[in-house]
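Sat 14:20. Reprocessing the chain from the morning session after the first attempt stalled halfway. Input below, unchanged.
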Amino acid sequence: MQIRKKQIMLESLQVNLDRTRNNLAEHEQQNDALHHQLNTCRIEIGNLKNRVEKLSQYQDIVDIEHYIAERKNQVESFVEVTKTEAEFLLEKMKAEIENTRHYLEKLEKNSQLKLEAQARERLGAFYNQVLEQENLEAISKALENKIQGYGIQDVYPVQTFLDQLIDGYGDIHAAQQLKEVRRKIKNAIAANTGGQCEYVEENRQLSAIALVTHVFNSKADLYLSQLDHDTVELFIQALQDDFILINHYGEAFGHTRIHESFLKLRLEEFKLTALILAFKAQQQTGPSELQQQRV
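Finished this time. Tokens:
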């Protein structure tokens, strides 16, 4: 029995010994692998040290790049701050300029009023006579022009004439502007805002404005129907004379007069029409000159 027990114990010890030997073999293999990895790492470390030694001479360049990048960020921040401050300063300067302009306009207006008041005070009744004299001279000149005439001859339906002119040359800028000016003129006539009157009664006031505006527009349409690119200055002067005379005679009817803004609209209509007519004449003469050159 004891021998049997010892055999069993011996077999168990042999099994344990075999297992231990196997474990030891595995550990030795792992140890060999670790030694191999360690040697590989040592080799890589050696290579990296060599590369570091080679690249160490360029460290100053790396430091300079970092310095430049840092300074660039600082400059960009400074530029942004300066730009913001400049925009603020610019807006402030614009406001100051606008305030100064208003102040100068007010000062100029007050100076003119002051000079007029001083002139009235010094000249007394002569001041009104001077103003009246200037008005009479303008009226006299306008009447003289009317007596001598402007060379008016043929008359054409002005609205049809302008409609055809705009339709024929609607692609040029002057025709588009003329169309807009005519729209403003029609609106002013429809709203009866081309003039003013001091009659208190509304019906008399509107009637007087309508009458004076009708007379003025009849004159303007008459000149416009005969307008060409060579006579625009002549008809502009004629309409300005009519403006002076109509406003002068309108004084007897509740101080009825044509607004200067309405005169400017009609004069602008003259100028734009003359531009289109000049363009039309240039187009018509161009082909004929080309044909002559070919002949």
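The longest helix spans residues 59-123.
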